[in-house]
């Protein structure tokens, strides 16, 4: 058994290797291995005659094509993923039996899928939405799935309401409009009539709903789980993924434009950075509460619409995850991967969170129809890296060839094997929670406070973050046609903050509320993205440049940017190469016809001695957009002319200096600052 369960970082890659096929340089065959001599023309009776049904190659090829699509996920349909490993920092044995959390020298293979919730597979990446953050750990004790989101809470408290919520936020059934958007009547009607959504809607209206990158967003397990140690002692636990690059977002206008410029923006960002060796890193944190402290808080710790404020329950960082390999085939891996919060290992167990309890049924149920039967665990991406031994047989797409007569327990013909394993042998043992009470369809009174933490979130925001939330409410509710629904939403959120509702009510044609408000004054600085890590690593810079640039100056700045981990991309009038005044050459990555400033984190204006009027006009628009999105802008040489003409000189985050080394450092510092909210937008 010990040899069978020797798992390391490369275990999953080694297992997948047997399924990889490289067709390059090979001869074409049918699915039966028969070599094919013709793949351009079907078999006909005469060159202008009818196609013959005996053309088995045509039939096989067309039949496979006709059946290539599988049902997309009802939610989280739009996703992208990568392989990597997880490594714990310290032995967590005092809290949990889970072996992958014991040995700091051990690397556990992982597969992580990021996603949006609402849109279809063909929707854009940068829509306002919750992001999924699902991690499959291929551990020595079997697969463990941490199925998380980039927000720590959810819209509803009980899973029985999940179909209602999803129906409301999906495109409206009469015309299937709008796609991948929460800005419509049915969602806000649901919100107003299900006020447990208040806290989550504050998060959805915040910058958290439009992340800059999958690499720059948090992940939260949402639910309260249990750690159980070897002695059977349990603790309540919440899981956190914290990105090493900090938590950063787009601005709304930028997000909308990117959806048109590059709807694959997030997946392209993840793929490209892994290909370049800029491996995304996340640290795993846990919040832990003793069982005896379950009722000491002013909220119910099992309520999925509530978070545990980090100032009250600190996050303990216990490990890191590195994503270091892209997928080989998006369908076989990203689309066919099946996550399930019920996939746990010894030492991790469930609680009575009613939303979690429902997910434990729903996830496996939906995989059955999406992946065509009960054997989806045998697909390469879903296989554990340890052997599977049980009495389950047959079903669609069965791949295992089980030998022997026996497929039942108990038995004597096979010595009563496969036999259950005791806890000492690694067998999973459910936590023996004492449960008593009447069978009812009801909700605990401790779940009934829907506004306190919504106000806590509002109180924790900086002025610019509050303004973004106000603008989001104005936009979203401005798309709602029903005046009754708009009025109900104003009345509802008056309980969260009069400052908030007064700021957006008149913009949507509703009189500001005259009563309401909240007495909650508590805040949680950990909730503000302005308190996140800010580093220049992997940020992209658009370098606007033409022939005749100052070689020494430009080469020095580009070298300094790269040394700081920043990624400059050259943009000029034409693809190919451009030449400096001293004869050096630069490869052009883009033209202004193929990219826009919204696709970059900063802009470096260089210009050159040869600039056409058309390029000048496009460059002026490019820099104007970057300025209006509060991004860092730098200029040297002739590039300063664009800054001066546009009236940006002296504005925060606009860097110009005659000293090249000073300029480079100031520009790098500006890029690390990310945004300049105190900029005066004209």
Automatic annotation (TrEMBL):
<dbReference type="Pfam" id="PF06628">
    <property type="entry name" value="Catalase-rel"/>
</dbReference>
<dbReference type="GO" id="GO:0005829">
    <property type="term" value="C:cytosol"/>
</dbReference>
<feature type="binding site">
    <location>
        <position position="359"/>
    </location>
    <ligand>
        <name>heme</name>
    </ligand>
</feature>
<protein>
    <recommendedName>
        <fullName>Catalase</fullName>
        <ecNumber>1.11.1.6</ecNumber>
    </recommendedName>
</protein>
<feature type="binding site">
    <location>
        <position position="370"/>
    </location>
    <ligand>
        <name>heme</name>
    </ligand>
</feature>
<feature type="active site">
    <location>
        <position position="76"/>
    </location>
</feature>
<dbReference type="InterPro" id="IPR029062">
    <property type="entry name" value="Class_I_gatase-like"/>
</dbReference>
<feature type="binding site">
    <location>
        <position position="162"/>
    </location>
    <ligand>
        <name>heme</name>
    </ligand>
</feature>
<feature type="binding site" description="axial binding residue">
    <location>
        <position position="363"/>
    </location>
    <ligand>
        <name>heme</name>
    </ligand>
</feature>
<dbReference type="GO" id="GO:0046872">
    <property type="term" value="F:metal ion binding"/>
</dbReference>
<dbReference type="GO" id="GO:0020037">
    <property type="term" value="F:heme binding"/>
</dbReference>
<keyword id="KW-0479">Metal-binding</keyword>
<feature type="binding site">
    <location>
        <position position="73"/>
    </location>
    <ligand>
        <name>heme</name>
    </ligand>
</feature>
<feature type="binding site">
    <location>
        <position position="113"/>
    </location>
    <ligand>
        <name>heme</name>
    </ligand>
</feature>
<dbReference type="InterPro" id="IPR024708">
    <property type="entry name" value="Catalase_AS"/>
</dbReference>
<keyword id="KW-0349">Heme</keyword>
<dbReference type="GO" id="GO:0004096">
    <property type="term" value="F:catalase activity"/>
</dbReference>
<feature type="domain" description="Catalase core">
    <location>
        <begin position="29"/>
        <end position="417"/>
    </location>
</feature>
<dbReference type="GO" id="GO:0006979">
    <property type="term" value="P:response to oxidative stress"/>
</dbReference>
<keyword id="KW-0408">Iron</keyword>
<keyword id="KW-0560">Oxidoreductase</keyword>
<comment type="similarity">
    <text>Belongs to the catalase family. HPII subfamily.</text>
</comment>
<dbReference type="InterPro" id="IPR020835">
    <property type="entry name" value="Catalase_sf"/>
</dbReference>
<keyword id="KW-0376">Hydrogen peroxide</keyword>
<dbReference type="InterPro" id="IPR018028">
    <property type="entry name" value="Catalase"/>
</dbReference>
<dbReference type="InterPro" id="IPR043156">
    <property type="entry name" value="Catalase_clade2_helical"/>
</dbReference>
<dbReference type="InterPro" id="IPR024712">
    <property type="entry name" value="Catalase_clade2"/>
</dbReference>
<feature type="active site">
    <location>
        <position position="149"/>
    </location>
</feature>
<dbReference type="InterPro" id="IPR002226">
    <property type="entry name" value="Catalase_haem_BS"/>
</dbReference>
<dbReference type="GO" id="GO:0042744">
    <property type="term" value="P:hydrogen peroxide catabolic process"/>
</dbReference>
<dbReference type="Pfam" id="PF18011">
    <property type="entry name" value="Catalase_C"/>
</dbReference>
<dbReference type="InterPro" id="IPR011614">
    <property type="entry name" value="Catalase_core"/>
</dbReference>
<feature type="cross-link" description="3'-histidyl-3-tyrosine (His-Tyr)">
    <location>
        <begin position="340"/>
        <end position="363"/>
    </location>
</feature>
<keyword id="KW-0575">Peroxidase</keyword>
<comment type="function">
    <text>Decomposes hydrogen peroxide into water and oxygen; serves to protect cells from the toxic effects of hydrogen peroxide.</text>
</comment>
<dbReference type="Pfam" id="PF00199">
    <property type="entry name" value="Catalase"/>
</dbReference>
<dbReference type="InterPro" id="IPR041399">
    <property type="entry name" value="Catalase_large_C"/>
</dbReference>
<dbReference type="InterPro" id="IPR010582">
    <property type="entry name" value="Catalase_immune_responsive"/>
</dbReference>
């Amino acid at each position: 058994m010990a040899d069978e369960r020797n798992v390391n970082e490369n275990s999953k890659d080694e297992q997948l290797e047997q399924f990889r096929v490289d067709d390059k340089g090979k001869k074409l065959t049918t699915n039966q291995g028969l070599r094919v001599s013709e793949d351009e023309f079907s078999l006909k009776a005469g060159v202008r005659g009818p196609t013959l049904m005996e053309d088995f190659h045509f039939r096989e090829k067309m039949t496979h094509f006709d059946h290539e699509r599988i049902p997309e996920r009802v939610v989280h349909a739009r996703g992208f993923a990568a392989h990597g490993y997880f490594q714990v920092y310290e032995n967590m044995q005092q809290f949990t039996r889970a072996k992958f959390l014991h040995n700091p020298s051990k690397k556990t293979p992982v597969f992580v899928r990021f996603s949006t919730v609402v849109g279809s597979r063909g929707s854009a990446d940068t829509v306002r939405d919750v992001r999924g953050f699902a991690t499959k750990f291929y551990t020595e004790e079997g697969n463990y799935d941490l199925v998380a989101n980039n927000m720590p809470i959810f819209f509803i408290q009980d899973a029985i309401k999940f179909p209602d919520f999803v129906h409301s936020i999906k495109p409206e059934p009469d015309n299937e409009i709008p796609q991948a958007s929460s800005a419509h009547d049915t969602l806000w009607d649901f919100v107003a009539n299900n006020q447990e959504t208040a806290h989550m809607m504050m998060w959805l209206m915040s910058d958290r709903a439009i992340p800059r990158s999958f690499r720059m967003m948090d992940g939260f397990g949402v639910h309260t789980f249990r750690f159980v140690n070897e002695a059977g002692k349990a603790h309540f636990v919440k899981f956190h993924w914290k990105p090493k690059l900090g938590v950063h977002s787009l601005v709304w206008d930028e997000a909308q434009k990117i959806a048109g410029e590059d709807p694959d923006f997030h997946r392209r960002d993840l793929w490209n950075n892994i290909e370049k060796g800029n491996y995304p890193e996340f640290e795993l944190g846990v919040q832990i509460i003793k069982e005896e402290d379950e009722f000491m808080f002013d909220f119910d710790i099992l309520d999925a619409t509530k978070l545990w404020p980090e100032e009250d329950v600190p996050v303990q960082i216990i490990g890191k995850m590195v994503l270091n390999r892209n997928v080989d085939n998006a369908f076989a891996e990203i689309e066919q991967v099946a996550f399930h919060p019920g996939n746990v290992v010894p030492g991790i167990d469930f609680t009575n969170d009613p939303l979690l309890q429902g997910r434990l049924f729903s996830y496996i149920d939906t995989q059955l129809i999406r992946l065509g039967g009960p054997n989806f665990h045998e697909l390469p991406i879903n296989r554990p890296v340890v052997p599977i031994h049980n009495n389950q047989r047959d079903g669609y797409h069965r791949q295992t060839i089980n030998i022997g007569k026996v497929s039942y327990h108990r038995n004597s013909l096979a010595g009563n094997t496969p036999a259950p394993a005791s806890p000492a042998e690694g067998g999973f043992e459910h936590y023996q929670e004492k449960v008593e009470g009447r069978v009812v369809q009801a909700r605990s009174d401790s779940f009934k406070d829907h506004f306190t933490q919504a106000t806590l979130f509002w109180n924790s925001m900086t002025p610019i973050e509050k303004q973004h939330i106000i603008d989001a409410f104005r936009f979203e509710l401005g798309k709602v046609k029903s005046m009754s629904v708009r009025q109900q939403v104003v009345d509802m959120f008056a309980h969260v903050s009069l400052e908030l509702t007064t700021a957006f009510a008149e913009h949507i044609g509703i009189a500001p509320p005259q009563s309401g408000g909240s007495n909650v004054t508590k805040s949680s600085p950990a909730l503000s993205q302005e308190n996140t890590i800010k580093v220049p690593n992997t940020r992209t810079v658009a370098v606007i440049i033409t022939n005749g640039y100052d070689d020494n100056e430009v080469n020095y700045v580009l070298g300094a940017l790269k040394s700081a981990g920043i990624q400059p991309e050259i943009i000029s009038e034409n693809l190919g190469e451009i030449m400096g005044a001293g004869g050096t050459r630069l490869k052009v990555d883009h033209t202004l016809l193929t990219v826009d400033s919204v696709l970059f984190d900063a802009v470096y204006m260089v210009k050159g001695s040869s600039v056409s009027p058309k390029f000048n006009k496009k460059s002026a628009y490019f820099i104007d957009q970057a300025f209006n999105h509060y991004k860092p802008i730098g200029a040297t040489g002739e590039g300063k002319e664009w800054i001066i003409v546009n009236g940006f000189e002296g504005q925060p985050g606009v860097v110009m200096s005659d000293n090249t080394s000073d300029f480079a450092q100031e520009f790098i510092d500006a890029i690390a600052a990310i945004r300049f909210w105190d900029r005066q937008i004209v």
